[in-house]
Amino acid sequence: MNSYLYLRTSGDDGKEKAGLPVQRDACTVFAEKNDYRVAREFADDGVTGKLPMHARPQGKLLIAALLADGIKTVLCYDAKRIGRTQPAFWSFIGLCRDLRRAS
Questions:
Q1: More confident: 45 or 28
Q2: In three state form, how does the secondary structure of the chain look?
Q3: What angle do CA 7, 9, 12 make, to 5 degrees?
Q4: Could you give the domains of the chain?
Q5: Among 29, 6, 17, 13, which residue's Cα sits nearest to residue 82?
Q6: By the 8 A CB rule, do 95 and 53 touch?
Q7: Pick from 35, 88, 96: which is nearest to 65 by CA?
């Protein structure tokens, strides 16, 4: 199954920071074990502030890619990569749900 890979770091990560290489490696291992093919990677590195996905540079491109073709699967290191706050996380999930219904 085709998928996108979304990686994100921020200044808020502190000591628990999982850098882009760590995230990429973990997601790649998961993808290989579960028959996902990563079609494209989107990486927001060091974007500051609690921004929703559509306000992040690569997040915008990810959303555009989800709208543009049949790929509807996004792999990420953990839920915090999508959004640090529940409203931000659920906003993205709602967007994905809406995209799925529209396709």
A1: 28
A2: CEEEEEEEECHHHHHHCCCHHHHHHHHHHHHHHCCCEEEEEEEEECCCCCCCHHHCHHHHHHHHHHHHCCCCCEEECCHHHHCCCHHHHHHHHHHHHHHHHHC
A3: 145
A4: 2-102 (3.40.50.1390)
A5: 6
A6: yes
A7: 96
Long-range CB pairs of 52-56 (<8 Å, 24+ gap) are 52/83, 52/88, 52/91, 52/92, 53/82, 53/83, 53/88, 53/91, 53/92, 53/95, 54/95, 56/8
What is residue 6's predicted lDDT score, i.e. its pLDDT? Answer: 95
The pTM assigned to this predicted structure is 0.81
**CA-based radius of gyration for the chain:** 13
Q: For residue 13, what pLDDT band results from cuts at 50, 70 and 90?
A: low
